[in-house]
Here is the input.
Amino acid sequence: MFSLFRKEVASYLNSLIAYVVIAVFLTGIGLLMWVFPQTNVLDYGYADMQTLFGLGPYVLMFLIPAITMRLFAEEKKSGTMELLFTRPLSDMQIILGKYFSALFLVIFALIPTLIYYYSVYQLGNPMGNLDSAGIMGSYVGLFLLGALFSALGVLASALTENQIVAFILGTFLCFLFYDGIDSLAALDLWGSAGYQLKKLGIVYHYNALSRGLLDSRDIIYFISTSAAVLLLTKLIIGIRKW
Here is the structure.
């Protein structure tokens, strides 16, 4: 599995798309935090990183499917899918190797945003006057969100051999899990059950982590949901092999 992980990471780093996607992510977040008048920190007047953690998930909805769209779709289109499964690896090991390579790229894209934390830290009045515990929790939440989005992107790539379709489907699944369930729960027709439905969505648990409280229930939600999506990917690949 580790050899497949290294191969996928090397393939990413040797291609232009990985750098373009990461550059677009960092540029987009940078513009939102420091330039655009309605979201930038300088005009907001408070030393916090709410712009990154509030709008970052919507940027990741496009970033991560762009990273994952090729994982299985390219193998199918190039006819190397059968060769891939002749390796002495189980289906789940192959899926995890590809999944962790995508997650590595997500971490690679998030690390430079620590510069924004340092900048906001310096801008505080007095210097350092910001909620570091909340920011740490928000970074944990953003990482776990990236892990779940990566799993959804891998699933989308396993469903088709067309990379563009995989990208669109992956973006749709990320949006559905992030905003769709929360919006559905807000409808009046659910009554008191709406709150329970809301807890099935990502927003509820992501917002809880963003408050700086690392509750095990929120962490377990992200890990278990990501695992369930990867198991579904394994089932789909198993069916398509036959």
The first helix runs from residue 2 to 13. The chain has 13 helices and no strands.
